[in-house]
Amino acid sequence: MAKKSSTCHPSPHRRTLLVTYPRTASNLLIKMLSLEDQDKVVSNEKGGYFFWDSFLKGRTTMSTFTPAENWTREQIEEMQQVFQQDFSDLEIKSRLAESQGKVFFGKEHIQWFTDPAINSSTTSPINITIPSSYNTATGFSANNPTIFPDGYLATWRLTFLIRHPALAFPSFYRAMRHLESEDFAESHEIQPMMELNTTLRWTRQLYNWCCEHKIGYDSGLPLPLILDAEDVIHSPKVVIKYADLIGLDPARVRFEWEAGIAKSPETIMKATIDNSSSILKDKTPALVDISLERRGWDLEFGEIFGRQMEKWVRDAMPDYDYLRARRLQT
């Protein structure tokens, strides 16, 4: 259950949250949107990821890998504090945009703001204090998988970015192994992180919540906006359309940039885009054969993990196909 405090809040749909999951080419999309060159947009230097610190704290406290019902008092206190601070930072930026008459844009991996107790019968250990001026109910409906109550979510335009599981999931595993090799991740983290990030269940659930509550709708568009990484890469004009629909300047969208990279956990996850100077179409082929991909996984990861990867991918396909059928197209 969320609490309330007192402050002002932005008007509905003056702010957009791009809901992603790891390795969906979200960094490419942010690069193409040129947020830093958008005169009427406020974001942060990452183009989102306001809950990055919460994600890191979940790892260092082992909360991410511990069922919510087994969290210690110390874990609850630490996670509550960091979630609340990240939320406050998000609200500060959002209010800044509102005060300047600008659009606020952020992106977030769905896993980073999903209720930690979503797979448990226990009450959520996270209780975000919501500004009282939102004057919204603090309840959670069945389709809301997040730490935010319905009334607060309704003040956002939620949009979505998806990518074929057979491309996103192996890419995430490679990135995790790279993080491990650079001492930015521990070996014991990889399997539970894969389990957490190889599903589109929460993405689909939140999308359905938007449909149920009529959040993120535009005149002439019957559904909340979904982008597929395949279209972003192979039909990039869809990014121009997306930018226009959420209040960004479509003329600022770019398809080329200067390459450059420094080493850190964040840049390892962004290595592909930071090392490129344009859209790399080979990273997201238009046609994906899971059985053929499986052969490559067996060679790259070993047969046992290749089999597990195939299961994760096939289990996620119904949700991916459901969302892809509703995507924005040119």
From TrEMBL:
It comes from the Eukaryota. InterPro entries: P-loop_NTPase, Pyrrolopyrazine_biosynth_F. This is P-loop containing nucleoside triphosphate hydrolase protein.
